[in-house]
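Contributing new records

If you add data, match the layout below exactly. Sequence lines come first and carry their own label; structure lines follow with theirs. Keep one chain per record. Anything else will be rejected by the validation script.
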Amino acid sequence: MKKLFMILPLVLVLCFTFSCQKAEEVAEEPAVDVEADVEAIKNLRAQYMVSQDAGDAEGGKMTQRLQVYKCEICGNIVELLHEGQGVLVCCGQPMNLLKEKSQDEGNEKHLPVIEKTENGLTVKVGSVTHPMEEKHYIEWIEIIADGKAYREFLKPGDKPEASFNVKADKITAREHCSVHGLWKKEG
């Protein structure tokens, strides 16, 4: 029993010495330079703003109401409800502004066809019916009538058309194809 009492203080001294050495090692590790990281982020943002054809004197880009943006990582699509300055970000990266195409290209016909009806408007996609397959279909059709937006969501198997019980003087029809993007027609 006496040997145990003689060894115990020695073990405690060794443990204390070892933990002090570890504390000194941790204290000697370089600290994270938060200021440098913040500065790097600011520089990246500034480079992005310049690359996006900045619109104002301070290099910021002004967003516009009803612009449509898409995340190239997860596929989220958003439509802007309020104008502002800045960059829309999803999945840690800036979202891409979808350009509204207004002329058909190739075999696919995407331009919305606006027809006035007794009750309002019907919008069909393409002069030739657009496919509505699982991986290639019209996701939604939208009209902007006298400044107000109306949208109908579609799914594979639906007809690529939508009817709106709206009468208006100024009409823009837009649709989004899951493969070929955003299309627009003034009517």
